[in-house]
Structures
1.
Amino acid sequence: MNGIRYFRFNKGSADWDKRVAASKFSKYPSFGKPTKGHICLQDHNDLVSFRNIKIREIPADGSVQDPSDGELSLKGVPAFPNLEWEGWEPVNEETGKVVPLRPMAITHANDGSGRIFVSTQRGMIHIIDKKSPEKTKLFLDLRDKVAPWNKNNEEGLLGLTFHPDYKQNGQFFVYYSAEGTPRKSKISRFTVSKDDPNKADPQSETTIMEIDQPYGNHNGGCIEFGPDGYLYIGLGDGGSGNDPLGNGQNLETLLGSILRIDVNNTSDGKNYAIPADNPFVDRANAKPEIYAYGLRNVWRLSFDPKTKTLYAGEVGQDLWEEVNIIKKGGNYGWSVREGTHNFGNRPDTAKEKPIDPIWEYDHGVGRSITGGIVYRGKRLPELDGLYVYADFVSGKIWALEYDEKTGEVTKNLRLAASTVPVMSFGTDEDGELYYTVQTVKGGEGIFRFEKK
């Protein structure tokens, strides 16, 4: 059910006694002695070992506890219900296969135009004019450069952000999985066309950085400019499962980290420079681009517009999903820890003491966090200062209240759940919140909240 298999065993049955006797743990007196219960086997296609088994006491009604402190009277509604997407068709005419729309990033250029920019995982960037939101304008088409997403990978056009001085220099940045082999992620700069503000110049690409990717998952991909003017890049550990290459605690690789670079300058033959106060610039063999590390798969990054605090959703593996406050030089534990818990049998090889997440929830609640946004808009005062986030698998959406003075979460409030996975959150130029979902109906790809 929902990707989880349930098995029931009865103490004292012939099958149970046979399994207990055959186990290498049968010499322990307490082994095999619990009464009837449920065992949830995680569906990662790996060999079952004791670290992959979690036992929970389930209430009589079969429900799983929801870690929330109440519910806000808000519901999600399509933000642009009649929207058509230029260049996208829900069915491939040649193959007859459904081509879902996967809006990946939603943002604005902060240029006073009020336009909303939306990138799709397949490689297109669209403009929505809120004054006439019937059809998008295709700003840039990168499909010939971007590795296509499919159900076996997490690749594609994963990040989009605009230079803080976009109104003057016309620069914006993308993060995408490059077509071809070997696998690479690229961070590139483009500029807007000199003749049309609603068209990017496709020939203007400058590659800022290329990152080798050993696998097709855990590619991260969120990019954001910080209040300091530097570009922050959220990465994953390189993929597969269990961090097989040990990248999470390895400062000699860019993977498993959040990077911070200066795209306004160049240095050492690269199209970027290293900020002088990056935390590992003076550490031997460490990558100077690293701002924080010990991360499995950052999905997504955002700065609180008011306090400038950096939030990151961190996708877990077997048991725990996290919300982290990212600190310069911070170690967030992966892969010796998952959330605040030891990960399997891994020895503690952490170079610095890991920083605990401000919030975590287990896989009885959801299985893949979609990091969100601290709301600072005006339309929904009940959300002011709350971090709105979701779970991709369960469709649940919450609003987290975090007290920066005490470092404690004070509330976690439910919002109306989405019927389909929430892929990303973003804001328009007024700070109003949107979230994106996969869809085959153009008008149902972007949602906003309204009072019930």
2.
Amino acid sequence: MKLTRSIRAGLLLIACLAGTTIPAHGRQISLEPTSLELSAAPGSRERAMFTLRNDSAADTMELTIGLADWAIDTDGGLDLIPPGNASDTMVDWVRFSPAYVSLAPGEARDVLVDINIPDTVSPAASNRTALLASTITPVNTSDGRTLLQKTEVTGLVYLSGPAADSLPVLDNISRIRLPDGSDALRLDVSNGGTAHARLQGSIEIDAIDERMSLPLASLIVLPESRRNFQIPLGRTVPANATVSASLTNTHVPQHESGRADLGRYSAPLGEVAPLR
């Protein structure tokens, strides 16, 4: 079933762009997996499954399920877009079942996502959609009023064609000064390919008398886009520091292994760049 309601939501997604669980006064729902990366040729059919779970120990949850387009906003958060409005939408290809579910405490239910890819789609294209599950529950306030609160979880679906390519480049690492006086690193990454990139690896900061190593995981860069990632350090960095980065792209549809290392980045950190 396809849902065509307009959706406006402000869920913030951390760097990995995974789905989000929102607690509401003891009520919780979760959706697994938080994202699916699929590959399919034009004219083919792809099926996938999400599992929706009521994590509450006491409350039954009545959930409505739907679709949305999505993008990443300038702050790295998830921007949910009314279905059919994005240039890379695939909501017209997607059917899902069920569209409504009632879950007892601790109960889980599978949601089937069925994608029929038109044979007119370019094999180098990539498309996205999001599966949403939401509920509205009454919340009692301290002054005796009852308000309605919306709880929503999101599972992301990426679909890449057989000729899509993921081509991320780490363009620059700079140091920025945060309002609290501490430093952060800003990574500027571009992706000139037609498929998204998912980056992991580590960054090392070297000064004369110390070394700092920072692990990175699931940094998403969408096709034909640029992003910057801000990494707070919680301290200031010596002026003579150098920075190096070793990153691997774990979503590389053009390679049989599905993985590729980016070129190693190494440079002096230099002066503090403007905060933007």
3.
Amino acid sequence: MKRLIILSIILIGIYSCSAPNNSCNIQTRIGKQMETTSEEFDTLLFQMNRGYNNDYMYRTGQWQVLQRYMSDNNVYYYYERKLKDGELIEEYRRFFSSGKLNVRGFCYKNHGFSIGVWSEYNEDGKLIREIDKDEPFRNYPWNEVRLFMEKEYHVDFFDKHTIVHRYLDTTSIPVYDICWQSKKDVFKNVIIDISTRKVIKEKEFKAQK
């Protein structure tokens, strides 16, 4: 039961960290045409260990690893997410059904906004594009936001109730949207305007029973 709960939480972010796209008006850098990768997914090991939901979750050293085989627009891929103990940022990879690497990047744990430079490769292993997922949010980097929230609001980002989103709102303003349990049965939500580095919304609400 515990494994199913953990797996459900992690899988929420599978599509949040999908292939590079321009949904946030992120500039695409095309180039480095000579760069290649030989990284591959161990399809045989996965097939030997997968569960009924086409998933395989295991630990290796300090890493928690979740692998999954599922479709995206009717095309099947292997997905892999790796989170190191004591870290908030996880590694994300998507592989073609052949096992060849397709997409590589980083996400915030579980609910997963994309972070840093993401790379996309074709089935020949050639780099076809890179996208800087941090570009719209550079005025207030994640590490600085984390320090601010820990100091001013005493947020525990490792708590299972803490949720962090980063996105462009309906008016294209880049924001951090952070929700956490401030006390028993009470949650707090803060929205930060990244362009001004100011809190623009703050509210408390009781947990629904």
4.
Amino acid sequence: MNYVVSRAALAAFLAVAAAPALADAFSSLTVSNVTVTVIDLDPNDGIAASISFLPDPAIYMGGALIRGEAQNYGDSLSGPGAQNRTYANSGAWPSTNVANSVQTNLAMQASSVTGSSSGVGFSALSMSGSALSGMGQRSRFWASTNVPGSSSGLLDFTLSANTQVVFSVDASMSAGTTNAIPWQGISESASVTMTLFAGGMAPDAETPLEDIAQQTLIVPGGGSDSWNGVLSASFSNLGDASTSGVFGANATIEGVAVLAAVPEPSTYGMLLGGLGLIGMLGRRRHRAG
């Protein structure tokens, strides 16, 4: 009886060893509580602290731009069974809500931005994606969100003298993968990045002042990570006259799923042959006893 149990356990072990190892990837990001705080750096100068966004975002500036991809394929995107789905959407106005999603057999991606007619042009955004592995298939998702969605990706503003402006958001992000085994030299991965940018010129009108706030998660195969917190970027006008500045927000997510190499038929044959040899030896020992 001990022999039978041992052989069954070994057979199960060999079956697991011969099976392909699936490797999936996931990423998500949510942003909320978008705030613009104006701070008077010299309350005694007689100038009220203020900010105005130029050009008027309700008339001239478009809303957010979202782009996304979902793919699954074998050796290449042009091979049999390959799928490639993409989208690109932008809001006509900052107050426009923008959303879209895309899906293949193994991958999906969805993004949305809640527009705002005041402030920096949005009040919330979310992005998520998943890439699953399949027999002989790898998959991938990718997405990018820009606010504003203009070609420069920057929103102009005018800031009063001796004034600081702070742009801040609450962000929650996560990324994860399920297996650390590469396939054909490619390892699974998942990532999330959120960036805020604020900048302008110093009082000498020659020196650029920039502040970049960025949080990134990069997860290799077989891991996971998450982050929750506040991102803030600021610009200070230390001059005695109003000056111009710019603000921008960008977010990206990406994930790649792969399938560990499937054993060749010859490998399966060796495994089965080894199991048969063990069985034969076991029977001889049983008869000898």
